[in-house]
Write a structure and sequence with these properties.
The protein is built from 16 helices and nine strands. It is α/β, with parallel strands linked by helices. It has a single domain, classed as Alpha-Beta Barrel (TIM Barrel), CATH 3.20.20.
């Protein structure tokens, strides 16, 4: 089975010859220091350069063995275009929000709307267009920052979380505004040729929002994005960080078949509450990926697969200092036979 078909089938819960190994991009970028050195890459510059972005997405796929291409390489594209000040980082650090554009929820109307002329919105879409036109046998994954995480990049997180309790109507207005802009960006990337859409919302973690907060402020807006873009792509994926146990019962209501999880979430209990057509993506510890040996990474990867992960992937955003050999060990693990878990 070709890698592209394998990834697309697995994301939709269809039969595959073996589990695929992916790293979607966005918050789970594979751009490490070692990879950039081998690719002669200037990471800060490439975030603005569509041709370089495309070259690096293809290059890191070849180096690591992942079975997809994914852009952008961070989670600050939308926030920067809407008014946040972003430190673009170095070869050893990814871009980070350095200053929030608003200090109160009531100021959301002062935020810029996304357009292909704003910040890196255009270059990211152009990079997808370039990559897609090369017709490589790997799916191109477009990455959106989830609505709660985008909100916490535009306003101090504790201000947002407190407002969810004290000013819920205002927060809903804010979230609706963010959704409309995320749908615009998602459609732009999919029309440029992306095959898969990933929505990553680490700030929507169950141990941050709790069941009520997740149901009120995360679930409906993530679903709104997925529903608005479903006619532009078939496979979608949602990534949420942290321990999802507090919101297990809500995950089956996500309008996606693929749910990417952190290493903090136990696989077996999650499988017991998901819909039959939903699959788990993940969940190899990023701490292990940075600090462990290739053999340890291989064992952890096989354990995740034996426990029910259908698509192997890092559990969260990897450190830029993650050894390339550890990522290659993950790529090898999906080709090994699975034996029963002992003990």
């Amino acid at each position: 089975m070709k890698s592209g078909n394998r990834v697309l089938n697995a994301l939709q819960g269809r039969p595959v010859d073996r589990p695929p190994f992916i790293c979607a991009g966005g918050m789970t970028s594979m751009m490490t220091v070692e990879a950039m050195q081998q690719l002669s890459a200037d990471w800060p510059r490439c975030h603005h350069d569509a041709k370089e972005m495309s070259r690096l997405a293809e290059g890191v796929r070849e180096l690591t063995g992942i079975e997809n291409l994914g852009v952008p390489f961070c989670m600050t594209v939308e926030a920067e275009a809407m008014g946040a000040r972003v430190n673009m980082g170095t070869r050893e650090s990814e871009p980070r929000v350095a200053a929030y554009p608003i200090s109160r929820i009531s100021k959301w109307e002062t935020l810029s709307r996304l357009s292909d002329k704003q910040g890196r919105i255009g270059p990211v879409s152009d990079a997808i267009h370039i990559t897609s036109n090369r017709r490589l046998p790997y799916p191109v994954i477009a990455n959106l920052t989830g609505p709660v995480s985008l909100a916490t990049s535009l306003i101090e997180p504790m201000v947002l979380y407190k407002a969810m309790g004290k000013e819920p109507a205002l927060v809903h207005e804010f979230m609706q505004f963010l959704c409309e802009n995320l749908i615009f960006f998602g459609r732009l990337m999919l029309q440029a040729g992306a095959d898969v859409l990933t929505v990553s919302d680490p700030s929507a973690s169950g141990n941050i929002l709790g069941p009520k907060g997740f149901e009120a402020f995360a679930l409906p807006y993530i679903n709104q994005i997925l529903d608005a873009l479903k006619d532009h792509c078939s496979p979608t994926m949602v990534h949420i960080c942290g321990d999802l146990k507090p919101v297990f019962s809500k995950l089956q209501d996500l309008h996606t078949r693929a749910i990417s999880i952190d290493s903090a979430t136990s696989i077996a209990p999650l499988l017991s509450v998901l819909r039959k057509d939903q699959v788990i993506v993940g969940n190899v510890s990023t701490h292990l990926l940075m600090k462990g040996t290739p053999r340890q990474v291989e064992r952890a990867s096989l354990t995740s697969l034996k426990r029910g992960v259908r698509i192997l992937s890092p559990a969260c955003g990897i450190s830029p200092h993650t050894p390339l050999a550890n990522m290659q060990a993950m790529a090898e693990s999906v080709r090994l036979p699975l034996s029963p878990i002992s003990g």
